[in-house]
Amino acid sequence: MEQIEKVTKRKRSGYTLVLTSGRKLFVSEDVFVRYRLLKGKELEETLIKEIEETSALDQGYQLALNYLSYQLRSEKEIRKYLLEKEIPSFMIGPVIEKLREIRLVDDQVYAESYVRTMIRTSDKGPAVVMQQLRKKGIEEQTSAEALLLYTNDSQQENATALAKKLEKRYRQKSHQEKLNKMKQGLMLKGFKQEIIQAALASISVEKDSQQEAELLEQLGDKLWERNVRLDLPKRKQKVIRSLFQKGFDYELIQQFIEKKELEHEG
């Protein structure tokens, strides 16, 4: 049998109870009132355990409500948060169940809201959104249903907007390398092939022959100087291979090499 020896109001909320053995109990306002935990009250061990469990449930619930006040969360996120806040693992299930009862935890609602937000605010395609939902603990079936909101029209719109950004980013690349990098960028963002092809077609990524020649000349000159220590055959081979890997047409490369050979002979 224990007895409450001291009751102290905590700064934020709730009370600290000091028992005759020196043991401390941290209880919420609600638990304090419900069990009438006044100084001098005697507590049996079974009641102390009940108070501890009720307090943990109440604390976990309040922490979860605060966590949810900023934005929707998945069940996995809430469980992780409560563990980090040192809520006993055996009490987290009851907290989640209490939140479910008032529909504050619903992974289907969360997934749908998340997909809508990604469509509106990000450049990510369905495959990447699916991966992110999986990391947040959303079941695959739930994620798949939510992703039905990401229509082909929305995918096309977002993929096209991203393609335009990528075209500007890689404007100093050869036409072929630019196309390859744009396709790769769109794939990494989670768009499927047919959406990628349609996005590239919609912005008409056409080859500018004059620009292509200028870019080859600039890069070719750098490569030619970089390999100046090599004998002429090896120098030519090295430059040709590098330019070809950069996506330039072989015929254009040959014209450049012939020009360099004439300069070398002169």
UniProtKB/TrEMBL annotation:
Entries under Pfam families matching the protein: RecX_HTH1, RecX_HTH2, RecX_HTH3
Localization, UniProt: Cytoplasm
Superkingdom in the source lineage: Bacteria
Gene3D superfamilies: Winged helix-like DNA-binding domain superfamily/Winged helix DNA-binding domain
GO biological process assignments: regulation of DNA repair
RecX first three-helical domain ranges (all copies): 61-99
Any coiled-coil regions, as ranges: none
Entry GO terms, CC: cytoplasm
Residue ranges constituting the RecX third three-helical domain according to the UniProt record: 154-200, 211-257
Residue span(s) of domain RecX second three-helical: 106-147
Keywords: Cytoplasm
PANTHER family xrefs: REGULATORY PROTEIN RECX FAMILY PROTEIN (PTHR33602)
Its job: Modulates RecA activity.
Stated family: Belongs to the RecX family.
Protein name listed in UniProt: Regulatory protein RecX
Species of the source: Vagococcus entomophilus
